[in-house]
Amino acid sequence: MTPDGGLRHGCVCVDVDIGCSVPTIRRDGLMEKAKVRIMASALLSKRPPRVDVMKGYEPMYDATMQECMQRPFYLYARGKGRSCRKEIWVFAAFIWVLDTFLTRLFSSGLLAVIPGMFSLAVLVPMHALMVWRLHDLALSGWLALVPYVLEVVGVGLIVGPMVSDALEGLDPSAPSPTGIVILLLAVVVRLAIMCVPSRRRHPVVDSGSLGASQTGTAQYPGDPNGQ
Fold this sequence. Notes:
Blueprint: H1 5-43, H2 51-54, H3 65-75, H4 85-105, H5 113-136, H6 146-167, H7 177-195, E1 205-206, E2 209-210
Antiparallel strand pairs: 1-2
Helix pairs in contact: 3-4, 4-5, 6-7
């Protein structure tokens, strides 16, 4: 290497850039590990439900299982706010288990309407939870309607020809492949909303613990609108 001053300066710049990026990556990794640790340890905690926190606008990374199941009913149809993946997965699992139990328990007779009534009762809070999840992804809450539209179109493409054949006295035709693909696409969209990590700022982490504020939730600086 020749003793060229410009070349030496270029090497120094490369060293500075690498030195600056490593702490940033390490800090982000520590934040993510702290968030996962708090989410897992708090889920089975026995503390009383924090109603004031559940009515807030921030994701509840430290929510207990009871809080995850109750929060959507406290907020119900409120459009503002954000939720984390933990909240939506726990609530979706709660709905699925209870709906399966009710369907098997009341499978015939007049009581068979109970599972349908339960599904209608949880439709609004589940949709609101999808809206809050989209806000956590920095997306519009209106995108939560996309899976419903796809489901309606898919069911229409499958059921429509069958009903038409039945009215004409013909044998029912095979389900439309296009309708099946659209229904699968609706499932993929829902899973994407539920699985994609947050695109908001990293929450403030203090002393290795997440959500060091008095409210007990992660705090996102510079985002007053709660969306």
